[in-house]
Every structure is written in structure tokens, then in C-alpha cells.
Amino acid sequence: MHTVAVLSLKGGVGKTTVALGIASAALRRGTRTLVGDLDPQGNATATLDPPLTDATLADVLETPRLAVINRAIAASSWSDRLDVLVGAEELELLNEPGPDSRRMENLARALDELRAAPRGEPYELAILDCPPSLGRLTRSALIAADAALLVTEPTMYAVAGAQRALEAIEAVRAEHNPRLRPAGVLVNRLRVRSYEHQYRVEELRESFGRLVMPTAIPDRLAVQQAQGACTPIHEWNSPGAQEIALTFNMVLAKILRSNRAGRHRLSSDEPDVPSDNETTSEFPAIRAFAEHETG
């Protein structure tokens, strides 16, 4: 089971939209998928519309035992191949730092339990929709994840926000989770004809090189329409939806490639070879993060 954490530093950038778009692309590929809703707002859970459960992800983070995990998982309304690890408002109480940092590893323990004793057909992909902050819930997701996808918008604050997030991701990788790999920085809600948006995307690429995904998610009304109907973007019938669906297919392919590359690097004795597209950032944490992507 490949696990990707989808995160952002602020609300309103469409992080949950991206998590659900990746889930829709995985569903179109026939990939058995689990979406874990760590955001106390619960928007991913609401859109995937699972039946009521006896437990939620908040209970799993307190008690990461298989019996609790199974009670917190339900099939989504999208497909029986897409399940939800159900979110709840109570997660907000678990987002503040606590005296026992070992509890941040409970999500990783829970996913390990699922790998060891899967519910029917094993999950091939787990998508963790994080809250819009770098609190304990997001750090728990990074400790549990194989890859981290940072979602941003093309605004004047994008570079500074991505810098802080990537440094935090690198810190988690160094201290807790050496298998964590970059999935990249994904620009969402891009207006292609906007000079300001194009300028900000180039600014991101100058700072972070290949960490910025070559494709961006365009700003289309179809996203809100599909979410409002609790429908996968791949099943929404409009030209805008088709454009976005193709983009999410490419994002998912990039995530899966980063997983294969990560396994190759772990098994290879050859040193990483820098790329011409490698980031020239002056920040060591960001350079180290990029080296994993370009190796």
C-alpha cells in the first residue's frame, strides 16, 4: 500500500479537491484505495458520503488497533473500491502538540495493521487528506506516508509557504520517517491567461525546480459542481471536468512513479546524479528534498 499525504499550509487552496481528484483518478484505474480524512472540517468524508460508522479516525489515533480501525472504515458512495477512514470534528482536539510525541506514530501503526490484516482485497493506495496546518495531525500523516504532495495556489505567498512546508517535511523525514519521498509541489486553481498566475508559477519553479509538478490544476467550475453532487470528477460530464480529470491522471502517475523511484534508490548503491533541472534553492532542507526527486 503506497501512502501519500496531501497537505497545505493554509485553508482555501483546494487541498481536499486535490486529494479527491487523485482518488477519482485511482478509481478510474481500478486501484483499490483508502482515503483518510484528517481534516477536522471533514470535507472529504462529506463528499465521499460513507454510511455512519461506530468509530472515526479520531478513535483510531487514540487506539490504533485493528478492531477500532475496521469500525472507522466504510465504503464510499463513489465505489466499493474506494473506502473512507472517516473524519470527525473531534480531530481538532488532537491537533495540538502533546507531551507524548509517540502518539504521532499511531496513524502509521494503524496503517501497518491494515497492511498486515487487510479488509478483503488489500489497499494499493492510501490518500491522507491533512488539515491546513503543520500541526500534530499533519505530522502524523507525514510519519505514516511514503510520499508528500504539497498543494499551493499561484499567489505572492506561494514560495514562502512552500519553503516552510518543505522544510517541515524534510525535518519529519530526518527525524521520524526516512522512507518519506517528495511527490512534489502542485499548483491548484491556475488561470492560464492570468499574467500574475504565470509569474508566480515561474517563481515557484525558479525556487524549487523539479519539485514543482509540470502540470497544474486549472480553475474550473466543474470541480465545485462535481463535489456538490458527491461525484468523482472523472464521471462529471463537461469539457472542464474532462480537462481536470486528465490532469489528475498525470498527477497520480507522478505519485506512483515517485514510489517506484524511491524503492529503486533504496536498493541502489549508486550515488544520486544531479539534474540540470534540480532546484538551486539556498535552503539545505529544500535541496535535500529535491535530491530525492532527481536521483
TrEMBL record:
Domain of life: Bacteria
Pfam families associated with the record: AAA_31 (PF13614)
Region (Disordered): 263-284
Family annotation (CDD domains): ParAB_family
Location of the AAA domain: 1-180
InterPro entries associated with the record: AAA_dom, DNA_Partitioning_ATPase, P-loop_NTPase
Coiled coil stretches, renumbered: none
Name by which UniProt lists this protein: Cellulose biosynthesis protein BcsQ
